[in-house]
């Protein structure tokens, strides 16, 4: 087994009395892409939101158990620090609408009150946009609004914004579900190139996408982690009947 970067121990997540994650034990391999799959409502988004401490911002959101990032229990850290180390990209591209492309990339620094010199900011913006495979398309229009870009470019801008903070883990919640096949392919290619530097966890409903890019896949069902393993093994020889039924389209 690879070395792990994020480990959950008996992780339970609630909305009020509703137990949504029922004691998940998961070890996320470092510098790999892990897909989280499962039928609608099984808790995929909730799991991602636990990892960067967003779940507890939901009214009545509550967590029990432990989440280790290396040897630190992230539930004992300041959530702001956690979000610097574990970035998140959402389903719909959400650049800050009033900000330029440039300011969007360094928004995390501004929001955290971290001062950057002009030279430092320029360097972070260029590096993050290059890492997100967007630099060549925007280098001459950095001061235009982020919302001026196409949907796929906006999503890569959101990835650049997350990468600018140099996170150890990047969480993506169905990042291509609002994009056309061409923009989707660019993002998939980008994620594969990024795993050299950052561990990636992606929620996807798209079995083809998980098969193309994910080294490992976790299958959740009704809040339980039913199966976790190398994607190829899980897809070709699932050990649990529910995984097999999901992969063959029985859960819709
Ligand atoms: N803000 C909320 N308040 C109360 N219950 C919620 C909230 N968000 C989600 N839930 C419930 O938690 C459960 C898990 O939802 P979650 O969004 O994590 O599932 P999911 O697997 O990501 O679903 P989908 O594939 O449809 O996005 C569902 O029963 C859902 O109704």
Primary descriptors:
globular; phosphate transmembrane transporter activity; alpha/beta; 6-stranded mixed sheet; binds adenosine-5'-triphosphate; 10 strands
- In whole angstroms, the N-to-C terminal distance is 32 Å
What would you report as the Rg, rounded to the nearest angstrom? 18 Å
Within the CATH hierarchy, at the fold level, what is the topology? Rossmann fold
CATH superfamily: P-loop containing nucleotide triphosphate hydrolases
What is the tally of beta strands? 10
Structural class: alpha/beta
Question: Strand fraction band?
Answer: 25-35%
Q: How many helices?
A: 11
CATH architecture: 3-Layer(aba) Sandwich
Sheet with the most strands, sense and barrel status: 6 strands, mixed
CATH class: Alpha Beta
The ordered H/E elements are EEEHEEHEHHHHHEHEHEEHH
* Hetero compounds: adenosine-5'-triphosphate
Low-pLDDT residue spans: none
Widest sheet: strand ordering: 6-7-8-3-9-10
Number of domains: 1
Q: What average pLDDT do the residues reach? A: 95
Tell me roughly what share of residues is in helical segments. 25-40%
């Amino acid at each position: 087994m690879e070395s792990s970067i994020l480990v959950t121990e008996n992780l339970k997540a609630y909305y009020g009395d509703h137990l949504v994650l029922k004691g998940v034990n998961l070890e996320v391999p470092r510098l790999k892409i892990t897909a989280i799959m499962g039928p609608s409502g099984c808790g995929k988004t909730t799991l991602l939101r636990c990892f960067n401490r967003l779940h507890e911002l939901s009214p009545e959101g509550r967590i029990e158990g432990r989440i280790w990032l290396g040897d630190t229990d992230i539930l004992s850290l300041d959530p702001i620090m956690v979000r610097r180390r574990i970035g998140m990209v959402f389903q719909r591209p959400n650049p800050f609408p009033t900000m330029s492309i440039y300011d969007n990339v360094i928004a995390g620094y501004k929001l955290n009150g971290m001062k950057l010199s002009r030279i430092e900011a320029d360097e972070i913006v260029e590096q993050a946009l290059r890492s997100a495979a967007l630099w060549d398309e925007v280098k001459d229009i950095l001061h235009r609004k982020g919302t001026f870009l196409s949907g796929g470019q906006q999503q890569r801008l959101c990835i650049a914004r997350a990468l600018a903070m140099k996170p150890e883990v990047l969480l993506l919640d169905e990042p291509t579900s609002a994009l056309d096949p061409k923009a989707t392919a660019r993002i998939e290619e980008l994620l594969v190139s990024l795993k050299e530097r950052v561990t990636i966890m992606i929620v996807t409903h798209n079995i083809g996408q998980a098969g193309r890019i994910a080294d490992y896949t976790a299958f959740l069902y009704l809040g339980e982690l039913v199966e976790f393993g190398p994607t190829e093994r899980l897809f070709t020889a699932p050990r649990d009947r529910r995984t097999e039924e999901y992969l063959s389209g029985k859960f819709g």
